[in-house]
Design goal:
about 210 residues; about 25% strand; Rossmann fold; alpha+beta; 4-stranded antiparallel β-sheet; disordered C terminus
Length: about 210
């Protein structure tokens, strides 16, 4: 395992925990938090990172990232290298930085929540995971044949307007969907608050990332 070699050659102390079902990473991370873990490192894709992050919100335990998934988009908000060895070095040399999560309709997100065309792309891309990051390109091509816009009612800072939209996204991360960058300014802001998209509302929470 490349990640193990990268950790061992730097003489790092660590434990390996393997997940066996959806939601298991959250359970493992929560247990490690109660045991006083300084950092919990996610080795995987954005789904694994999200599950672990859920357990770390509001704690003193930092989230470390070694990208090994399909899209590896969340890492881009922190300039974490895509190469595993370089990512481990970044983890070792980096420092813990506070970072926000947010809530949409009762569910917590670390990166971006969206609806419309892009959500359809992600749904269709799940059928092409065997092709790696190209899955999103294939999903986008397929979704384009069925794309249609929707009228969205948006309220920001108590001002409401309607707009015909192909997609709508809100978040504190910059990238999703295998490299799409719908929120380039999120990296500068590092937080969101007070957004409402129809019945969707955002409330910022806090998570520490080792970056």
């Amino acid at each position: 395992m490349m990640s193990k070699k990268a950790m061992d050659k730097r003489n790092l102390q660590y434990e390996i925990h393997t997940t066996n079902a959806p939601g298991h990473a959250t359970e493992i991370a929560g247990d490690l938090v109660t045991k006083g873990a300084e950092t919990v490192v996610a080795l995987g894709g954005d789904g694994t990172i999200a599950e672990i992050g859920m357990a770390l919100i509001g704690t003193k335990t930092a989230l470390g990232i070694i990208p090994a998934g399909t899209g590896n988009d969340y890492r881009k908000s922190f300039d974490i290298p895509d190469d595993i060895d370089d990512a481990v070095e970044y983890l070792v040399q980096g420092k813990s930085t506070p970072y926000d999560a947010f809530e949409v309709n009762g569910e917590t997100y670390l990166n971006i929540a969206s609806m419309g065309f892009d959500a359809d792309v992600v749904r269709r891309a799940s059928h092409y995971k065997i092709f790696g990051s190209a899955a999103y390109t294939l999903g986008a091509i397929e979704a384009a044949f069925f794309a249609k816009s929707h009228i969205a009612q948006i309220t920001i800072d108590n001002q409401t307007f309607e707009k015909d939209m192909l997609l709508l996204a809100v978040g504190c991360g910059t990238h999703y969907g295998g490299g799409m960058n719908p929120l380039p300014n999120a990296k500068k802001a590092r937080w969101i608050t007070g957004y409402m998209f129809n019945s969707i509302s955002g409330h910022n929470k806090n998570i520490k990332t080792s970056a």
